[in-house]
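Quick one: structure tokens for this chain, please?
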Amino acid sequence: MTGLWYCPSYCMRTNEIREFRVDRIVEIIEEKSYTINEYKIPSSIQKYLESLENGTDYHLKISLTEKGVKRCETEFLLAQGLKVFPNRQGIIDMKIRKSTLEWVANYFLSFGNNATIIEPLELKELIRSKIIELHNQYFE
């Protein structure tokens, strides 16, 4: 995704499959052997990827300027829900999984006026809290 490699792995802390950026992995440890059906793990990578495409936790709706459209066209996940209008502005209208919300917030944080979050409210609140956190970090 955007030139970075991610590795889906089962996270023992959250008890779900998470995507980890490969360049940030410091150590991988096997907790213990496990029996089949002990964890909610898809039977194959293909099944996992299909489940990503069928996320239904949040309805993502984001209005984009022409510049925002250009940035989103190259992002695989977002391009799937991107609709571009004749004036080159657009909208992202799609369903996403809960585990994707943090990534979406971080991605759109730098868009400024080139993206307007319409839905979900949780994304608006997450971005707002990140902006406040950044403000406090730099201006305290």
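The mean pLDDT is 83.
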